[in-house]
Design a protein that fits this description.
This protein is mainly alpha-helical. The protein has nine helices and seven strands, in the order H-H-H-E-E-H-E-H-E-H-E-H-E-H-E-H. The strands form three sheets. A three-stranded parallel sheet has the order 4-3-5, with helices on both faces. A two-stranded antiparallel ribbon has the order 1-2.
Length: 234
Amino acid sequence: MSLLSPILEAFWAVVRKGTVQDASYILGITQTGVTQRIRSLEKQLKTTLFIRSRKGMKLTAEGEALLQYVKSSLEIEGMALSRIHRAAKDTIIEVSITGPSSIMRSRVIPNLLPFKKKFPLMRFRFDLSDAHNGVEKLKTGLADFAILEHHQVTREMDSKILKPERYHLYGPTAWKKRALNEIFTSETLIDYNESDMMTFNYLEKYKSKNKIKKERHYANNIDAIAFLVVGEIG
């Protein structure tokens, strides 16, 4: 983490790496982006900070002066962040995570248990929800993290792709001798609510979506869905 402005971050990256290309790698932006930030900084300061050479980017006298300022700022920043982090360790912090009940139970919660030992003052709020409203909860601050489908992730979000989930299609035991295509054409799906497209997406992957009825049963509780399946409702 750095408290430097983006243009000073670009300046510091070029100084450390020596070239715009290498600076772009550590900043995670394009070479053009780095160059634009340097030019913006030079425009604000009304001076030239670098001279291009065969060995890379060489600081001018003005650039050397700015470098001393940046180093001093980073030193002060390091001390400030150290104090902030020490204070944070003594503060109870709540982290809210929302997502579909299946992946929350099978992967998210088990993988977060070790964090409790490392951060004893951390408090978790797990929101197991199959209502597919994670984006709204992020925007309104009701959740700090959300498990979303790929199409729900927007450019302004910081995201990480999780390993694929393994899904199964369930039906009553009494139907096990029936042909799958016959079940699709004569029986009704059971889903969480109208916005729950998981079963449709699953069947579309196996080219069976057009065989099923569009009208579905709904139950916004996993136990209730299981009860309906056992009862041969769908």
